[in-house]
Design goal:
mainly alpha; Methane Monooxygenase Hydroxylase, Chain G, domain 1; single chain; 7 helices; about 70% helix
Length: about 130
């Protein structure tokens, strides 16, 4: 079986497996992680992308999907589903999300993570500004 055929079968399986899931760990999350793998692997043309996707790049890609605008949305989607308060969801930024930038393996992911980290910091700054006005 060729890599493209394996990939397509995996995508179809993921879509079916996560159908109807709305907590942020759905098919779209998995496909975004795969897209992040492709984005990072562009910086490593000597690597076999199929094998690389199963190693450090997959680790980085998964963590990249947890931060930035998508990470913010996923945090509040999951928080709502789990019955968490806004304060509990915001605490998750400090407990996990703001730490992920320093856990990247590849230089490409470190740069993407830096930008997404800054975006989250900007979001938190704005969040605290707005709750002061309530």
């Amino acid at each position: 079986m060729m890599h493209n055929e394996i990939t397509e079968k995996a995508v179809q399986y993921i879509k079916k497996l996560f159908e109807g899931n709305s907590d942020g760990h759905d098919a779209q999350h998995t496909l975004r992680v795969y897209k992040n793998v492709q984005l990072i692997s562009e910086s490593y043309p000597e690597a076999d992308s199929f094998i690389t996707a199963l190693a450090a790049l997959l680790h980085d890609a998964d963590r990249l999907d947890a931060i930035g605008a998508i990470g913010i949305a996923r945090t509040f989607a999951y928080g709502g589903k789990a019955g968490r308060s806004l304060d509990d969801s915001v605490q998750h930024f400090y407990d996990k999300l703001l730490l992920l930038k320093d856990e990247m393996n590849t230089e490409a992911a470190k740069e993407i993570a830096r930008m997404r980290h800054e975006y989250m910091e900007g979001f938190l700054k704005e969040y605290y500004e707005e709750i002061r006005c309530e």
